[in-house]
Amino acid sequence: MRNYETLIVVTPLLSEELLKEVHAKFNKILTDNGAEIVHEDNWGLKKLAYPIQKKTTGFYKVTEFKANGELINKLEIEYKRDERIMRFLTVALDKHAASYNDRKRNGQLAPLPKRVKAEEAK
């Protein structure tokens, strides 16, 4: 089993109830096919970099999971079939990325330094 991370962008026209239904549907596909969900992160409603289907915002959700490679094709076919999914991206995580995600979740990473404006630096 390999580590994967998938990001989906869901149409902003859904109610909270329908959004939960979409998330539950894809979590069920993962678990029914033997995947182990490691972590889920709902980013919420975000502005898109460019319009997709005449929409400028979308609900983002990232799911990290462990699964066999055959499941990825099934999952992506389901993403394509669901009209509520505007975009998706699934990537395989190497051991360093999986370790980074784990440390990040456990709070073991130092926070990023604050940016200093040029005027403040003088």
Order of helices and strands: EHEEHEHH
CATH class: Alpha Beta
- Total number of beta strands: 4
Strand order of the largest sheet: 2-3-1-4
Through-space gap between termini: 53 Å
Note the main sheet: 4 strands, antiparallel
Taking all residues together, what is the mean pLDDT? 89
| Assembly state | single chain
Under CATH, the topology can be stated as Alpha-Beta Plaits
Q: Provide the number of structural domains.
A: 1
CATH superfamily: Ribosomal protein S6/Translation elongation factor EF1B
Query: What structural class do the secondary elements suggest?
Result: alpha+beta
Give the C-alpha Rg: 17 Å
Share of β-strand residues: 35-45%
**What count of helical segments does DSSP give?**
4
Structure overview:
By secondary structure, this protein is of the alpha+beta class. The chain has a single domain, classed as Alpha-Beta Plaits, CATH 3.30.70. 36% of the residues lie in helices and 39% in strands. The chain has 4 helices and 4 strands; from the N terminus they run βαββαβαα. The protein has helices spanning 16-32, 70-81, 95-105, 118-121, and strands spanning 2-10, 36-52, 55-67, 85-93. A 4-stranded antiparallel sheet has the order 2-3-1-4. β2 and β3 (55-67) form a beta hairpin. The N and C termini lie far apart (53 Å). The model has no long low-confidence stretch (mean pLDDT 89).
